[in-house]
Amino acid sequence: MSKATSTDLEFFFDPICPFAWITSRWVNEVSAQREYTVEWRFICLAIINENADYSNFPPNYPLLHGLGKRLLRIAAAIRSEVGNDGVARFYTACGEHLHHRGVSMAIFGGDPIPENLIETILSDADLPASLAVQADNEEHDKLLRQESELAFSRTGPDVGTPILTFAPGTETEASLFGPVISSIPRGKQAVELWAAVETMARTPGFAELKRTIRAPLSFE
């Protein structure tokens, strides 16, 4: 495939979103089979909901969105200091703790954010513990806002995370919100779903395909 960049996909994520996490593991499954390259980029739920009335959300949503922003600040620093591979490792470690080990659901249910969560995630990702201070560095918020706005410029507003851009920087670049999936496709099924989603994204005039009935979340 001829392309202007070395990246097959840009994946915009907030680490707090369980659906983005499942989609990201599907993307990794496809990448391992088809040798696609992925650039991990940011869309911050706390920023895109900053004018929302949080009284309409469950009580701990502001805390969860705030945690997502703090983790994305660290991810921004990692990209600057380590590169895309470091962001990938950090996101994987975030997902293992937040979703596989149930930390985000515990916070959603009223528990506080565990002490040393960020330091543990960094350790699991083989990244310096010193990066933890970046969680409170608001200088990264400019980049988080820029990338969130870039993602929305490609799909339109009123969507969430993840946003996928296929073949970025080429004549066939195309973006979609999702797919929102409740479990991780594996093997042949993963590649078949990739082909279907990419085809829809690149079809002129295609905008939306949706149903609201969802199976229970599975991170296996």
- From N to C, what is the helix and strand string? EHEHHHHHHEEH
**How many whole angstroms does the radius of gyration measure?**
17 Å
Strand content: 5-15%
Q: Which spans have pLDDT < 50 for at least 5 consecutive residues?
A: none
Question: Major sheet, described briefly?
Answer: 4 strands, mixed
Order of strands, widest sheet: 2-1-3-4
Quick one: how many beta strands?
A: 4
Secondary-structure content class = alpha+beta
Q: Let me know the average pLDDT.
A: 93
Walkthrough of the structure:
With 220 residues, the protein is an alpha+beta fold. Helix content is 47%, strand content 8%. It contains eight helices and four strands. It has helices at 18-34, 45-48, 61-81, 84-100, 103-108, 117-124, 141-155, 187-202, and strands at residues 9-13, 38-42, 163-166, 174-177. The chain has a four-stranded mixed sheet with strand order 2-1-3-4, with helices on both faces. A hairpin with a 7-residue loop joins β3 and β4 (174-177). The longest helix is centred in the N-terminal third of the chain and has 21 residues, at 61-81. The protein is globular and about 45 Å long. It starts with 8 loop residues before the first strand and ends in an 18-residue tail after the last helix.
Give a quick rundown of the structure.
By secondary structure, the protein is α+β, with helices and mostly antiparallel strands. The chain has helices at 18-34, 45-48, 61-81, 84-100, 103-108, 117-124, 141-155, 187-202, and strands at 9-13, 38-42, 163-166, 174-177.
